């Protein structure tokens, strides 16, 4: 019979062997993607096209169990500290180009295509983490509302939650006329139709609440570009009323930039908590 000290040594050895074995299996399960190779902060990035649309996948050195991944909506590579932290934990990072589409049906179609490709052909987890930075909030929430059972959690950073606020500029923010014109074109709407539209993220939270999708927002309280009061604050209030789980990290005195957190640990912890 083992005494206490021997049992402790045996347990530690068993955990070490088990952990090491998982890492060996993970290393062997790295996926080969077609496309051109490039470097992403020391990790392998593959650039390819699906139906003529630019896509990118960054691969970890060792793949975590279940092939988890984070899906960056826009501004790929900007403030990459979260992605780097997750890559070190065995996550993949994915991206497909939806620039100029503002979360419209065409953007959702492109996301559907990449999701189908990664999950069906490469065994990616069926419930990715969604990351929406600034205008990326539109596609993240619109795709999630259409596919609530295919989302593990959402991290949104200074997100646009109502296109009337930005790029429309119909509230306290300046908006962007050029981007607003693009947005109207992407949705095939007149301005009057857009003002009456009830399909923005702030309007379409019930599917996410019913699917118990946890949300994390990081916002600068002095954001004048995407005002918190017109976006995150409304979404937070409505999501809580629906019984949804949402956490908001406020950055006092900070504007729209810089995005993310210098130390992404709170964001990483939120994601890992909901594995």
Quick recap of the structure?
The chain has helices at residues 4-28, 81-87, 105-122, 136-146, 177-187, 191-196, 206-210, 232-241, 265-273, and strands at residues 36-40, 43-50, 53-59, 69-72, 92-96, 129-133, 153-157, 215-220, 246-251. The chain is an alpha/beta fold.
Textual characterization of the structure:
It is a single chain. The protein is built from 9 helices and 9 strands. The radius of gyration is 20 Å and the shape is globular. It has one domain (30-273): Rossmann fold, CATH 3.40.50. A 9-stranded mixed sheet has the order 1-2-3-5-4-6-7-8-9, with helices on both faces. With 275 residues, it is an alpha/beta fold. Helix content is 37%, strand content 19%. Pfam families: Peptidase_S9. Residues 126-257 form the Peptidase S9 prolyl oligopeptidase catalytic domain. InterPro entries: AB_hydrolase_fold (IPR029058), Peptidase_S9_cat (IPR001375). It comes from Calycomorphotria hydatis.
